[in-house]
């Protein structure tokens, strides 16, 4: 089945100081990167290979597929009373 877009999720791991990247749409996608820019660079490298191996029918789409990269980073706001 061809998706209307590829959805990728990058979640910040504060302890490891990396973005952990995965996707329910692309079988086998699991990368880590230190910056958002590195996430995009690694996706540009890895996604075509994984699609060719696991989803060759997607290669027939003449306009390709939109790529949605969703990032999530949780932090704590420290408040103090003055």
The geometry reads as elongated
State the distance separating the first and last CA atoms. 58 Å
Largest sheet: 4 strands, mixed
**Beta fraction:** 25-35%
Give a structural overview.
The protein has 82 residues and is α+β, with helices and mostly antiparallel strands. Helix content is 23%, strand content 28%. The chain has one helix at 36-54; strands spanning 6-13, 18-22, 30-33, 67-72. The chain has a 4-stranded mixed sheet, with helices on one face. The N and C termini lie far apart (58 Å). The model has no long low-confidence stretch (mean pLDDT 91).
Features of the shown structure:
82 residues; alpha+beta; four-stranded mixed beta sheet; 1 helix; elongated
